[in-house]
Amino acid sequence: MKMRQLLLLLIGVVLLAAPITAPATDDGGQQLYQTHCSRCHGIDGQGLRRLYPVLQGSSYFGQKLMQLPCIIQNGLTGNIRLQDGTYNRTMPGNRILDADQIARLMRYTSQLATGESAATTTITSEEVAHLLQQCQ
Hints:
Layout: H1 2-17, H2 29-36, H3 38-41, H4 60-63, H5 68-74, E1 75-76, E2 80-82, E3 85-87, E4 91-92, H6 99-114, H7 125-135
Antiparallel strand pairs: 1-4, 2-3
């Protein structure tokens, strides 16, 4: 009986000593993504067959980070070459999103692109507003 009590005590100590990982906080970017992007790019960024690009694991995000605010707001046409092929579907712009919403959306999609549990970009709404002024 003492061995069982000792084992339970040891398990309890290990569980209490284990670091507690808080879930990634979402600043609304996920909801923005679900509302404005998931219909084409998929709920988890998996894309839609050969029609719309995959965001999961895509290097495009990192390569085009500074152009993404303009792409999100104004859309994109023409060939898009990615590691898994070429896409030629029009991405409609979303002019109703403001700089803060685009920044939150970018922070969330960075998680999809990298597979990380937290955003890999810390882009701010001020930085997005500045980038948007350059593309108008």
